[in-house]
Design brief:
By secondary structure, the protein is α+β, with helices and mostly antiparallel strands. It contains twelve helices and 34 strands. Helix 7 packs antiparallel against helix 12.
């Protein structure tokens, strides 16, 4: 009987243990299933963009219980890890089963590489992550292709430019090419959707002036333009006068000395003799292309027609080279020199140097506002140390009151601390420091505001942007140049309010930001009648705005001139006015001349009282000038006490720069 009872207990124990194991496994399986499920359904789309921002529309559906918290978009991550250095936070309340749609506007200059993945994470009110989704290639319109527009009367002869589906490498990522046939009536509508524009065997003189200006602007904004010439060089270049390239002669097949390219015998093609009127283009390379950085984009002009190249048979390609290989070589050689979203390979050439100079100038912005000079404090501390010791003792001894020494020392210490405190009030950074400069283009009626910020503390700080702005983000090219990339930038959207800030590595860490959109530009303009010859510069500049210019710069024929004092409504006769500076850079741009020959010299002479204003003017010169308007007159004025960019508790010094291109 006892044995039977004991056996019964053993069986019960085994059964309980089995039930326990089953429950454990089922619980683990349930946990695994839950981990694979998403709490939210996320749809992200890139909307049609303006030239300054990526407008990303998110549609979030709550598949679970009621939720309230922060939806965070993480930027500038790596393809190889999940380290991000910038976030855009949006507060949302999502009842069960609800769907909400909102838009995040990210400045294009806040994105380091467009191909890098982004991530969306959901943080509840306890800052616990409840869900997340990696967003690959979001900024390429959600597609894994590069769009190539073709403007040609021989479109069928150019379809090989998609390389038969072969992918082209941009910034460590491979993209196939999708061709889009263009015509005279629809090219304007298609430009913003293109990465490449190919013009070949087409009479461009039939294009309107507006379309040609749009093409020029598109290239400057980051587009990659490839022009084929050959037998059709005169017609194809006829309307593209802004390229400053002309055809002097077309050689028949076999006549040109430039008929040999890397891996391809081009002697079978008509070759155009091209003349670079302003020496803008680099020497011909493997594909025989004339290449040029153009704003943030690039231009490649070929001495042969791509439509004629497409008709070459296999015998023209040597050493195992194919038509696809040569096409890839052309596209790579032109695109890699651009400073567009895809082409950051090369850091040589005019445009890249200008980007470097801009970083140098903005780094100096805010230097004259640095009030942390401790000379007087040092004197006070030194006097206290000396006085509180032997001098105090000597005085009390002379008065025969040495017994009061131990009372006098604490009193002197308190007085010293009080003096240090009073003296130190003028040197402390009691709140976040902001130096802002708004740069307005009076010709095109748009503006951008640059900000240099820092805080005395080492903890995270943020500030509310003024209501007039619609977007804000870090100026990554400046921050990356100066830091170890560990500073964490954060943008918060709370209702209609935008806040920006950072989590610094150290106290006084510099943060650089860009803001814009929605702000009304200044009324009025700047009129000029300026010319330059061997006798010097002459003409007039009239300030038809409501702002006084304490300094203004004139760029004419790539010469840079700086003057002082042009009041609102005033006119300056240049040949009768003393210049603050004038210079010519030969192989350097006016932006480089401004930094190296004017601003650095101004700073070295310790005339630092106006260095912030000079830096603000330099940032506007760098914004206004580009290779595409090197033959135009640019007038830039700067004024202090501008409208504040920040509506929060901070110490802001604001400058405004207005410019016109004529």
């Amino acid at each position: 009987m006892k044995k039977r009872t004991k056996l019964h207990h053993v069986l019960e124990a085994v059964l309980v243990f089995g039930i326990f194991i089953c429950c454990l496994l089922s619980g683990k399986m349930a946990m695994t299933v839950y981990a694979d499920e998403h709490r939210f359904d996320v749809e992200a789309n890139l909307l049609p963009q303006d030239k300054d921002t990526y407008d990303i529309q998110f549609t979030i559906e709550n598949l679970g219980e009621d939720w309230e918290g922060t939806v965070r978009l993480l930027l500038n991550g790596s393809q190889y890890d999940e380290v991000y250095d910038c976030s855009y936070d949006t507060r949302l309340s999502l009842p069960q089963g609800s769907t909400k749609t909102y838009i995040v506007r990210v400045p294009k200059r806040s994105v380091e590489h467009i191909e890098d993945p982004m991530k969306l994470v959901f943080l509840d009110n306890r800052s616990v992550i409840t869900d997340g989704k990696v967003l690959n290639r979001l900024l390429t319109d959600g597609a894994s292709v590069l769009s190539m527009g073709i403007l040609s009367d021989e479109y069928s002869a150019l379809t090989y430019l998609d390389m038969g589906g072969r992918e082209l490498t941009f910034e460590r990522t491979d993209f196939p090419i999708k061709l889009k046939r263009l015509d005279q009536d629809h090219i304007s509508d298609m430009l913003d959707k293109l990465t490449f524009l190919v013009i070949d065997h087409y009479n461009t003189s039939i294009l309107s002036g507006d379309v040609l200006r749009q093409i020029e602007y598109w290239v400057s904004a980051g587009g990659i333009l490839i022009v084929g010439t050959g037998s059709f060089a005169e017609d194809t270049l006829s309307g593209l006068t802004f390229l400053e390239m002309e055809c002097t002669e077309v050689h028949n097949p076999g006549e040109s000395l430039s008929g040999q390219a890397h891996g391809v015998d081009l002697s079978q093609l008509p070759i155009a003799e091209l003349y670079d009127r302003k020496n803008l283009y680099n020497d011909k390379n493997y594909s025989q292309a004339f290449t040029c950085e153009w704003g943030h984009g690039a231009v490649g002009i070929l001495p042969y027609a791509l439509s004629e190249l497409g008709r070459l048979d296999a015998s023209a390609f040597q050493n195992g080279y194919t038509q696809e290989d040569f096409t890839e070589q052309i596209l790579d050689e032109v695109s890699k020199i651009s400073d567009s979203r895809y082409g950051k390979y090369s850091y040589t050439g005019t445009v890249s140097n200008d980007s470097y100079v801009f970083r140098r100038i903005i780094n100096m912005f805010g230097n004259s506002g640095d009030h942390l000079h401790f000379g007087l404090l040092g004197v006070i501390v030194a006097v206290y140390v000396v006085f509180a010791g032997p001098v105090l003792y000597f005085i009390l001894r002379m008065l025969q009151k040495r017994e009061l020494y131990w009372i006098a020392v604490p009193i002197t210490a308190v007085a010293g601390i009080f003096l240090v405190y009073i003296a130190g009030r003028g040197f402390e950074v009691a709140s976040t420091r902001v130096f802002s400069v708004e740069v307005e283009n009076l010709t095109d009626q748009n503006s951008l505001t640059y900000m240099h910020c820092y805080d005395a503390g080492y903890k995270e700080w943020d500030l509310q942007l003024a209501d007039a702005f619609e977007f804000v983000g870090p100026l990554v090219e400046v921050n990356y140049y100066n830091s170890d990339k560990n500073s964490y930038y954060q943008i918060k959207q709370e209702g209609d309010k935008l806040l920006f800030g950072m989590n610094p590595n150290n106290a006084f860490d510099d943060g650089y930001f860009l803001a814009g959109g929605g702000k009304e530009t200044v009324k009025g303009t700047i009129q000029s009648q300026v010319s330059y010859d061997i006798q010097g510069i002459e003409g007039t500049v009239t300030n038809e705005t409501a702002w006084d210019f304490e300094y203004f710069a004139v760029i004419c024929n790539d010469m840079l001139f700086v003057y002082r004092n042009l009041p609102a409504g005033g006119t300056c006769v240049l040949e009768q006015t003393k210049k603050v500076f004038n210079g010519f850079g030969h192989s350097r741009t006016p932006i480089e001349v401004y930094l190296y020959d004017f601003m650095n010299n101004y700073y070295d002479q310790e005339r630092k009282e106006d260095i912030d204003m000079i830096a603000a003017l330099g940032m506007a010169v760098a914004t206004a000038y580009s290779g595409m308007n090197s033959n135009r007159t640019i007038i830039v004025g700067v004024t202090r006490n501008w409208e504040k960019a920040v509506d929060d508790n901070c110490s802001e010094e604001a400058y405004g720069c207005l410019y016109a291109v004529q």
